[in-house]
Design goal:
184 residues, Nucleotidyltransferase, domain 5, globular, alpha/beta
Length: 184
């Protein structure tokens, strides 16, 4: 039985994509990486999507995660923002699926609840709790990277439990679970 696994957590965004990696050794978390991809310097939305896809593949190829946890877009009032966020999430998921890495999607509320015990916690509260849990010396200026890390930690806490997140183990699983969204 494999007692080690690496979890990549992603907070997809079209201006900043936050990500974090943890290693799980015998049911204990170890911090590996926390960073973000700055996308605001690119005016073209499609160029941003290309960079999200490429950076996600780079992370996969260099750190070899066993699983990916990704924050699901929340339902806001701005339809255009939702569409762009969904695309950002989709290309990050496509990168993972292209390498046959299982992906689990978590709502922002579920992630906050797993980390702080409060589904309405602020980004700062989530970051401070992660700092304490993983013994992080400093926190980044932008908290998108801690949101990515939070997705990975949430997945660790939910491993082995019945998940309310959506799991995709490959393209066929994605298609099967999303038949209503696919045109024939």
């Amino acid at each position: 039985m494999n007692t080690e696994k690496i979890i990549l957590g992603i907070d997809p965004g079209t201006t900043i994509m936050g990500f974090g990696l943890i290693k799980v050794v015998r049911k204990k978390m170890e911090f590996l990486l926390l960073n973000e991809l700055q996308l605001s310097k690119y005016d073209d939305h499609y160029v941003r999507l290309k960079y999200i896809f490429e950076r996600t593949l780079q992370l996969i190829d260099s750190h070899h995660p066993d699983e990916i946890a990704i924050e699901a877009p929340f339902f806001g009032k701005n339809v255009q923002s939702m569409l762009k966020l969904g695309r950002a999430q989709g290309v990050a998921m496509a990168a993972g699926l292209s390498r046959q890495i299982p992906i689990t999607e978590y709502s922002p509320k579920k992630i906050k609840m797993a980390i702080t015990g409060n589904g309405n916690a602020s980004k700062e509260q989530v970051a401070k709790m992660l700092q304490s849990l993983l013994d992080l010396k400093t926190l980044p200026k932008n908290l998108d990277s801690t949101d990515g890390l939070a997705a990975a930690v949430c997945h660790f806490y939910n491993s082995g439990k019945i998940s309310t997140g959506k799991n995709y183990t490959g393209w066929s699983a994605f298609v099967k679970q999303n038949e209503g969204r696919i045109e024939k």
